[in-house]
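Let us practice reading a record.
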Amino acid sequence: MRAGSDNCNRAFSFFRMEASRCDLIFAGLFIAVTVLQIMALIFSPLDLAADEAHYWEWSRRLDWSYYSKGPLIAWIIAGFSYLPLEPFYAVKAGGMFFAAATSVLFYVFARQLASPAVALAGWVAMRTMPVFSTLGLFMTTDPLVAFFWLLALFSAFQAVKNDKPRWWLLCAVSCGVGFWGKYTIAVLPVAFILLLLLTPERRRQLFTWSFVLSGVIFLLSLLPVLVWNAKNGWVNFQHNAGHVLKSDGSAIKLQYLAEFFGGQLGLLGPVLAAMLAISIYRVGRLWLRERDATSGVLLAGTVPLLLICFVVSLNRRVYVNWPMPGALAAALIFIYAVERGLMVLPSARKCISHIIGPSVVISFAAYALFLGVTAGIPAKFLPTKKLVGWKSLGSDVREIVSSRSEEPFVMATNYGVASVIAFYSGGLPVYCGNVDRRRMNQYDIWGGWSNLLGRDGIIVIQDLEDLGRLRNHFSEIIPLGVDGREIGDWKFESRKVLYGNEQLREFYYFLGREFDGQTPDAPDGR
């Protein structure tokens, strides 16, 4: 029994570490993870994602909003472009920065919720979840909304838990700036108001000058996006509302619900996803019983968003990244549940093997894919298939354009393809025409077709049938080879994109002479 008792004590010794030692371990792990991500970016053979290139296109035309999102991601990319970085890394740098800032803020927040060792263990669990271990490898709105969601939640915690209403001002700024990144964060102000209404001892904060002013600050932050939308036919709001409000028939679609839960199991790790769900349930019961301020704030940052995603998934597809900010708050709920004794952690060894281990394996697989390791998996099943072939495509177009005596404009029929051509061709102006009943995109808002009257254009398409709708806009269309030479008798040569030994897609190049200056067919929807 003596030996068994000693082993038990050693197993649980991790959770009794001093604060200074925990902070030191956190600092070491944080630096190690950050360096790992930087090295992954440096050694990855993959190109920018089409969406990343599209956001880069936005950053070249700064505005108060854009077709599908607010302006924050474009502003950040534009800001990092002033640093002495290659364009590829200038695009990626913002995602890396905000992922790192989120990681630090999460640990600071966790230290206020629990003992240092439990906070450190919770941070490790969060950072090894696939959705957060890869956060920062891509410059999307996810790293931005994660940081500002967490900052708003931290500010609300200070205001409610410690009865310091002035923290609502920082919360309002966080929600306002976060709204410019992703509209999802608009859920938080509503959730916080409901929280105060349901917490009698804090209800008076609704009438303090700081809370009222914070409401004014948040509403003012909406104005730039509202004004832009009013000037552009509310296309931004109509597009985003379509994701949530437009019905896909009246019946419940079980496949969407299965996709929603299956996606979360993959992004969070199966064991951790289950533990987060149990934590939310037990902390929810605690709040109902005690109206505990900490529980209320954390639940406000989790439950409303998860419920919205669940309801939408009953009838429409929910993208797996939508609940991500709520998962971040759920990880804090897990930490708080452990601290309050609502969840009992096993020994440190079992935590690593049973809880963190599965997530590490999934994250390792994700990093392997990001570094170009395919392990014999067919290309069509690889999520990284969308990150190959763009550099060669942009290089082709640049060579073709430079070979013409008079510089032609470039036209693609897909916004993602147009964006990666613009990026990898060295910044050539590219236009996006409609030939296949597509929805609207930012290129349609920019327009500019009338300025191209009489000019020749390089046309990039993937389906030869798409060429039919373009014939009426040019006096003549001529097939081109990959090297830019004109091919007679309509013999086609294509740029084939290979991943391993499999062909993913192919592109055809054409020269269109004397464009008529008319806008190609209008998009079918928003």
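A brief commentary: The radius of gyration is 26 Å.
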